[in-house]
């Protein structure tokens, strides 16, 4: 089973691409706080690349902005390539299947 659940904040506005009339894709980086503090007392974060496809990508384009707190569910996808020196390099990203905005940046407090 390949299932991931993350809660974090967007580090910058999402990138959006239209691949064809029926296929869209959005990408962003999600900063996810670790649930422990380092020896220096600081709570570090992991920066997770996320991609969203189809109609959900349009929602990402229209509603998500830098600083939004979101929860998302998806799966981990890995890929590899050879660099110019012939070394194998690996990449990973979370492919989001669903998400929810928990906190809008700049939202008025009630």
From TrEMBL:
DNA-binding keyword on record: yes
Protein name, per record: Single-stranded DNA-binding protein
The GO terms this record gives for MF are: single-stranded DNA binding
Q: Which SUPFAM superfamilies match?
A: Nucleic acid-binding proteins
Self-association state and partner proteins as the record states: Homotetramer.
Tell me which CDD domains the record gives: SSB_OBF
Is the keyword DNA-binding assigned to this protein? Answer: yes
Kindly state which keywords UniProt assigns to this record, in alphabetical order.
DNA-binding
GO CC terms in record:
nucleoid
For the biological process aspect of GO, one term held by this record is: DNA replication
Q: Which PANTHER family match?
A: SINGLE-STRANDED DNA-BINDING PROTEIN
């Amino acid at each position: 089973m390949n299932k991931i659940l993350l809660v974090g904040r967007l580090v910058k506005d999402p990138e959006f691409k239209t691949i064809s009339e029926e296929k869209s894709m959005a990408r962003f980086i999600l900063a996810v706080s670790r649930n422990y503090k380092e020896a220096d007392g600081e709570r570090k974060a992991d920066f997770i690349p996320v991609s969203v496809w189809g109609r959900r990508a349009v929602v990402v384009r229209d509603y998500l902005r830098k600083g939004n707190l979101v929860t998302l569910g998806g799966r981990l996808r890995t890929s590899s390539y050879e660099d110019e020196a012939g070394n194998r390099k690996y990449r990973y990203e979370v492919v989001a299947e669903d998400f929810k905005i928990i906190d809008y940046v700049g939202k008025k407090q009630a």
